[in-house]
Each structure stands twice: as structure tokens, then as C-alpha cells.
Amino acid sequence: MHKLERIINKIKLRYYNPNSWNHALTVLKLDYPEEFSENLEFVALKQLDLTLEHNLFRFLLQGYENALVLKQLRGAEFNIENHKLFITLDTLTFEVQTAEELFILKEIFVEGVYNFNLQHDMEDYLLIDIGMNVSYASCYFAKVKQIPQIIYFEPFTPTYNQGKVNIALNDLDGKIDARNYGLGGCNEVLSVPYAPEFRGQVGIQGTDYIRSNITESAIEKIYIKNAFEPLLAIVNDFSSKRFIMKIDCEGAEYNLIERIPLKMLERCDLIMMEWHEKGPKPIEQWLQENGFTNMSFYPYSKRAGMIYAIKS
């Protein structure tokens, strides 16, 4: 990019809405000057081998760096069908709708946040996914890690419905049991703010944990069940299984853990849990009291961190 063109693009950024398509494109022109070719109708992203119509897929421009990492390190393939963006990674295909989802895919497929190995064969396990989001992790567990049965819980209906889309795309309906309610410390019905572009960060506190600028929001009614009875029913229905738990429920984890049946914990070999704002100490203590050894990441963060716990 010529120096004059770069100066012009920097000036443009002062006038574009930071959440606009033109702003996102101009930022990328500055960061990746050799990546684009453009005319009045289309923008070609050379490294992703994609051609976008103007004003479509703003989220891909905003999440371009993560998309590029997925392409370069994991051979991700992107394609557009019927004005929808799809990504194929290994044997999995997902519809992508937000920049946040590109970040989540990078966490799973590049950073390996769920790339565990256990002493038993995978067919011995059932995985409980509390806070499924759009089912990227559940599909990864089912197809990549070869876990034969997964039960997930997701209280936000729009998020749940998109999760079902991704399950169907990968022919995993028979392995993944999707339940459209959340688990917590008690039975309750809540009406909370919901932000579609940051749905992975929305929980019982609504949008309180979101630090980015929210451009679209709505009120969603969600159903939360006392975790004890649904989880105890799973223990009784799958009496020969051991358990893996993924818990990412945006702040509900502190009340939730006290409702997990001891019978489930006795047969649970691995817990992967994200904590939010109250810190890891209460969770670490609970894990130790129930026979787990844990590794805690970002323990001094004021926002969130990750804990991985295995049976001692």
C-alpha cells in the first residue's frame, strides 16, 4: 500500500462508525495491505480464497486474524452458500455467524483447550456440556475425541437453535442430546438481555460480562433448573458410564457446583470449567474437597479464568 493511500485510510477511520462494514474493511486494509482486491460490488480475501459482497459478513472482517490462523495452522476451508458462511475443519463443518465464534473455533482447534486424553477408552465416557453455546465444543467432542454420548444444556433458545443447526450439519443428532434449559442452583425463570453477536458470553446475568460494544440486544426468557435432579437422572440412566464435564455458564458455576450429585462426581474423571469475576478460589476448594487435582489458568484475572481438574 502506498504511503498516501495509507494516510487516506487512516483519515477515513475517523468518520466511519466503528461498528460499520467500511470501518472493519479499512482496518484490515491497513493491517493486511496485500490481502485485498476490490471493486464496487465485491471484496476478495486472497488468503481465505473468499469473495464477499459489500456490506455482508462484517463479522468475518472483524475476526479476520482468527480466521487466518485457522486457515494457516489447521487448514480451515471457508465457503459461502446462500448468503451463509461455513468453515470446514478436519471432518467438521460449522456455520459461522459472529467474530466471537471465530475466536472460539481458534480456542478449540488451534489452542487445544479441550484436547484431553484419559486413561479409559473414550467409549466408556459420557460428556456433560453445561453451557453449550452453538455446539462447536460438543461437535468436537463427538467427532474428534470420539465420545459416543454427549448431553448438553443451553438456556437461550436462539443459541440453542443455532447449536442444533451445527449438530445437523455434522450428522451428530444420534450422539448429542440437546436440552433447551440451563442448570443452576434452583428452579427459576429469568428474563435477561441477550446479545446475538456475543452469545457465548451471555448468561443469567445477561450481558453484564460483555466488555465489547453491543450493537444489538433483546430480552430473552430462559429456564434454569436445579442441577441436582437432571444430573442425578443422568447418573441413574447411564449406570455403566464414567463422566467428563465441561462447565461454561457465565457466572452460574458458583451455585451450580453445589448441586452436582456426589454419585456423578465419584465417576467423573475430568472437569473443565470457566469461572467469572468471583475468582477461582471457591471452585478450587470445592474440587479439592471432592478428590480432584486442578490446574488454574489466569488465577489473578478480574474477569474470567479456566480450571482443569482431574481425579487425584
Write a structural description.
- This protein has two domains: 3-109, no CATH class; 122-184 and 224-311, Rossmann fold (3-Layer(aba) Sandwich).
- The chain is 31% helix and 29% strand.
- It has eleven helices and 16 strands.
- The strands form four sheets. Strands 9-8-7-13-14-16-15 form a seven-stranded mixed beta sheet, with helices on both faces. A three-stranded antiparallel beta sheet has the order 1-2-3, with no helix packed on it.
- Helix 4 (64-74) runs parallel beside helix 5.
- It is globular.
Blueprint of the fold:
Layout (H helix, E strand, L loop, with lengths): L2 H11 L7 H11 L4 E3 L3 E4 L4 E4 L4 H5 L1 H11 L2 E5 L2 E6 L2 E5 L2 H11 L15 E6 L5 H8 L5 E5 L3 H13 L6 E4 L2 E3 L3 E7 L23 E9 L1 H10 L4 E6 L5 H4 L5 H5 L1 E9 L4 H9 L2 E6 L6 E8 L1
Parallel strand pairs: 7-8, 7-13, 8-9, 10-12, 13-14
Antiparallel strand pairs: 1-2, 2-3, 4-5, 5-6, 11-12, 14-16, 15-16
Helix pairs in contact: 1-2, 4-5
> Count of helical segments?
11
Tally the beta strands.
Answer: 16
Number of domains: 2
What structural class is derived from the secondary structure elements?
A: alpha/beta
Uncertain spans, ≥5 residues at pLDDT below 50? none
Biggest sheet, spatial arrangement of strands: 9-8-7-13-14-16-15
CATH topology of the largest domain: Rossmann fold
The CATH architecture assignment of the largest domain turns out to be: 3-Layer(aba) Sandwich
Q: Which whole number gives the mean pLDDT?
A: 90
Which descriptor suits the 3D outline? globular
